[in-house]
Amino acid sequence: MSFATGPGVDVQTLLASNAHEIKNLVGQLTLALDRLALDGEPARGVRLLARRIGDRMVQLLTLYKLQGERLSPRIESNFPADFIDELALEARSLAAGRVAVESVPTRAEDFWFFDRELAQMAMLNALHNALAYAREKIVLSASVREGYLVLGVEDDGGGFPEQVLASQSQAFVGAGCNGTGLGLYFADVVAKAHVNRGREGRLVLANRAPNRGTSFELWLP
């Protein structure tokens, strides 16, 4: 149950790109704090930026530890319903009423074996991106399809750029929406680190009907 960076993926480039994105996010946070001080702008945008910076820092540390090593998940029994409920609470707290957050009744097994910490890191990154781009609604879900646990985040934002949908895992870097694409690369690494009975996890991205937003799915065997 392990995964190493794929051929052609230079970890030093990933680390440098992630550091650059963190610098940009810190700049945005500084501007948001300035606006907050001047005109009392709602704090939700500042909190979300802080969460996104935290996402990048965690990914940076994980990628650093991944250099020359293999990512080995700690597989334990988890409850998908509880997992999704916790994400929904985080989303509603950060949304502060700006967008609706729905949790689809969980169509999954009572428990599933996966690395909760890694899955949470991948899903929180997707959730925080959805909060940044959603217009009115975010939907979180868990279901079992084709023998996989599918953890999903949907939003009604502008959708993924076509180059992201056309990318292989290592090509996510540099192809992201207003970012480096490292969050997607990281989620792909997390998915593929999960292997069970010869089946490997995967990341599935899609744009919903025209102008209806994005679908992010983490498939865990």
How would you explain this protein's 3D organization?
This protein is α+β, with helices and mostly antiparallel strands. The protein has a domain at 73-220: Histidine kinase-like ATPase, C-terminal domain (Heat Shock Protein 90). The protein contains six helices and nine strands. The strands form three sheets. It has a five-stranded mixed beta sheet. Strands 1-3 form a two-stranded antiparallel sheet. Strands 6-7 form a two-stranded antiparallel sheet. A hairpin with a 2-residue loop joins β6 and β7 (199-200). α1 packs antiparallel against α2, α2 packs antiparallel against α4 and α3 (80-95) runs parallel beside α4 (116-133).
Task: Describe this structure in a few short sentences.
This protein has helices at residues 11-39, 44-66, 80-95, 116-133, 162-165, 182-193, and strands at 76-78, 100-103, 112-114, 137-145, 148-155, 195-196, 199-200, 202-207, 214-220.
Mean pLDDT level: 77
Strand order of the largest sheet: 2-4-5-9-8
Structural class: alpha+beta
The number of helices is 6
User: Between the first and last Cα atoms, what is the distance in angstroms?
Assistant: 11 Å
Please write out the topology.
Layout lengths: L10 H29 L4 H23 L9 E3 L1 H16 L4 E4 L8 E3 L1 H18 L3 E9 L2 E8 L6 H4 L16 H12 L1 E2 L2 E2 L1 E6 L6 E7 L1
Parallel strand pairs: 2-4
Antiparallel strand pairs: 1-3, 4-5, 5-9, 6-7, 8-9
Helix pairs in contact: 1-2, 2-4, 3-4, 4-6
